[in-house]
Amino acid sequence: QVQLVESGGGLVQAGGSLRLSCATSGLTFSTYAMGWFRQAPGKEREFVAAIGRSVDYTMYADSVKGRFTISRDNAKNTVYLQMNRLKPEDTAVYYCAAAGSLGTMRVPRGQNYWGQGTQVTVSS
């Protein structure tokens, strides 16, 4: 049974930082591209960042570029999202996802597995 479990969310003031983790089990982690998405109340889920099977390839939404960093530890089957200089508009439920390749990560229904999400709230 595949599981993706996010953690690290919480309440932070604008300008602060949080580090999200997504621990996986039941899948061969190193063979999947991993990504982070978020969904704010009343809005559609949107792409945030993704990393390829190796750590050489990453991509980011324009809204988080330069503030967020995605990384992975294949030995720990875990993907991370370091979020710095947080803004109130970053408030959302953050989900991690696994996809067969980096190219399908941003394609609708291109993800194979999803986590249950973790709430991030940034106060002004």
How does this model look, in words?
With 124 residues, the chain is mainly beta. Helices cover 3% and strands 51% of the residues. It is built from one helix and eleven strands. The chain has one helix spanning 102-105; strands at 3-7, 10-13, 18-25, 33-39, 46-51, 58-60, 68-73, 78-83, 92-99, 111-114, 118-123. The strands form two sheets. Strands 2, 4, 5, 6, 9, 10 and 11 form a seven-stranded mixed β-sheet that branches. It has a four-stranded antiparallel β-sheet with strand order 1-3-8-7, with no helix packed on it. The longest helix is centred in the last third of the chain and has 4 residues, at 102-105. The N and C termini lie far apart (40 Å). The model has no long low-confidence stretch (mean pLDDT 95).
List keywords for this structure.
124 residues, mainly beta, 7-stranded mixed sheet, 51% strand, globular
Offer a quick outline of the entry.
The chain is mainly beta and 124 residues long. It has one helix and eleven strands, in the order βββββββββαββ.
Biggest pleated-sheet summary: 7 strands, mixed
Distance between the termini: 40 Å
Amount of helix: under 10%
SS field, number of helical segments:
1
**Global geometry:** globular
List the topology elements.
Blueprint: E1 3-7, E2 10-13, E3 18-25, E4 33-39, E5 46-51, E6 58-60, E7 68-73, E8 78-83, E9 92-99, H1 102-105, E10 111-114, E11 118-123
Parallel strand pairs: 2-11
Antiparallel strand pairs: 1-3, 3-8, 4-5, 4-9, 5-6, 7-8, 9-10, 9-11
